[in-house]
Amino acid sequence: MFHRITIRSAATVSVVIGCVAAGLGITTSVAGATPPAIPSVATAKSELAGLSVVAEGSMSGYSREQFPHWITQSGTCDTRETVLKRDGSGVVVGSDCQPTAGSWRSPYDGVTITTSSGVDVDHIVPLAEAWRSGAASWTTARRQAFANDLTNSQLIAVSASSNRSKGDQDPSTWLPPVSSYRCTYARMWVGSKHAWGLSLQSSEKSTLTSLLNGC
């Protein structure tokens, strides 16, 4: 005999489906990372037009230690852990705020990761790129704020492999393998550079212009 089950909300439907999938050993899809303050295409175009175009600066004096991270954000949670909780699905953390369970869908390459050790928190505008684009002259406090920026579209959870592939390259030499995400990536890149007053090199601007025109 079958019994009628009344499900009263979309949230309940999601929970039921998730539980059934887990019981069957199925990996369910999860939402991709969504940093805040991603500008619209029109806003990104306007911001891009206002950025200075200059030759990239030297890497002299650069080290990641010039950009202190990850700093404590709330309680025991640092910036990395905060982004992992924000960008993941079903994230469970321990008393030290380290994730013990969860799923992360990397928007760069479409890969779903189920262990936090396989997830990197990427700086959309890499630290070395920022250094070459104006951050070399900043105070350490400003560089720390940039490296831990949770307000602008600067930090995102992605697969470790895609982050290592990107390195410190700008969009003229590296773009996310998932082509449908490149418009969003360009908007985030421009939004972060605009928020922090960083400059562009000419090839970088040309690539970003083409990407935004194709959105």
Describe the structure in your own words.
The protein is α+β, with helices and mostly antiparallel strands and 215 residues long. The strands form 3 sheets. A 3-stranded antiparallel sheet has the order 3-4-5, with helices on one face. Strands 1-2 form a two-stranded antiparallel ribbon. The protein has helices at residues 10-24, 41-50, 79-87, 127-132, 140-147, 160-166, 182-196, 202-213; strands at residues 72-74, 77-78, 89-93, 99-105, 112-113, 119-123, 155-159. The chain contains 8 helices and 7 strands.
Keywords:
two-stranded antiparallel sheet, 215 residues, disordered N terminus, alpha+beta, globular
- Major β-sheet, in short? 3 strands, antiparallel
Kindly report the oligomeric state of this protein.
Answer: single chain
**Beta fraction:** 5-15%
What's the rounded overall pLDDT mean?
87
Radius of gyration of CA atoms, rounded to a whole number: 19 Å
Principal-axis shape equals globular
In N-to-C order, the SSE pattern is HHEEHEEEEHHEHHH
From the N-terminal CA to the C-terminal CA, the straight-line distance is 53 Å
